[in-house]
Design brief:
Number of helices: 13
Distance between the termini: 36 Å
Low-confidence stretches: 260-275
Structural class: mainly alpha
Largest sheet: 2 strands, antiparallel
Radius of gyration: 20 Å
Shape: globular
Oligomer: single chain
Number of strands: 2
Strand content: under 5%
Length: 275
């Protein structure tokens, strides 16, 4: 999906990007895989804590690297493997040190109202800043807006799954979380595509990957009462591990393989053979 959005023509901006994407087979395949991944994420959110599931999603970068190396046969630099190792080690230390635990299945109506309003205002402000400026600034704004809404979306998925497991399908269809989820999820998806299209991946991808779990952790405490260890030393280690996650994500984005680089290598190879 990243490659499809980045390869869209410059005039396919805003809402005009969607008609272009639905004609791209790679994007459609990516959407099909996303549906499966979404179902697995929903199950994980139902069985576990929001503050655990969302940070673990950062590991998608490592799996993307493995797919591109062993399935797509893209060359991968040693720096990229080192960055992937930093992501994995930092994630493991964060989960062990911070020890996310506890929580309750539902939030109060007041907490839902204020959290949804706060998330919507922050996302709208970030998207507003992305309407003008340099490509990097626009990509950053859209990415932050998308990541904030994705975190809100995860809370709604967790709530909907709890209702489904306790009261059934009819209760889910008659409740408000499902319809807010569809709205928030659609907006987040469009903002992701916009972020990938308007600016460099080295700006949008780290923000998409890091802001989501960071906001999710805040929402997990606010809405579901999840909590972390009270040990100052463990909390410090957890904070340092999260910074390691951020650094690993930025480095992996910067050193990972690019479609343009692979294509350029493929073009040079025949030319060298002809010479």
């Amino acid at each position: 999906m990243r490659d499809s959005s980045s390869a869209a023509p410059p005039e396919a901006g805003g809402w005009r990007l969607l008609p272009y994407l639905v004609r791209d087979r790679r994007w459609l395949l990516g959407q099909a895989v996303w549906v499966v991944a979404f179902g697995l994420q929903a199950l994980a959110l139902h069985l576990g804590q929001l503050s655990v599931v969302q940070p673990v999603l950062i590991s998608q970068l490592v799996f993307t690297l493995l797919v591109r190396r062993f399935a797509s046969r893209w060359p991968v630099r040693g720096a990229a493997w080192g960055s992937a190792a930093l992501v994995c080690v930092s994630l493991a230390f964060f989960l062990v040190a911070a020890e996310p635990r506890g929580g309750h299945p539902g939030a109060t109506p007041s907490a839902w109202l204020w959290s949804l309003l706060t998330g919507g205002v922050v996302a709208a402000a970030a998207a507003g800043l992305a309407l003008r400026g340099s490509p990097a600034r626009r990509a950053a704004g859209f990415a932050v807006a998308a990541a904030v809404l994705a975190a809100v979306e995860a809370t709604l998925v967790k709530q909907a799954m709890d209702v489904l497991s306790t009261r059934g399908v009819i209760a889910v269809l008659s409740g408000w979380p499902l319809y807010v989820l569809v709205l928030v999820g659609s907006a987040s998806g469009l903002l992701v595509q916009a972020a990938l299209h308007v600016g460099p991946l080295t700006v949008s991808q780290p923000l998409l990957v890091v802001v989501n779990p960071l906001v999710s952790i805040v929402l997990s405490v606010w809405l579901f009462g999840e909590h972390f260890t009270r040990s100052p030393g463990a909390l410090l280690l957890g904070a340092c591990s999260f910074l390691g996650l951020v650094a690993g994500t930025v480095l992996l984005t910067a050193t990972g393989p690019r479609a343009s680089a692979v294509e350029a290598t493929a073009e040079r190879a025949p030319a060298a053979g002809q010479a």
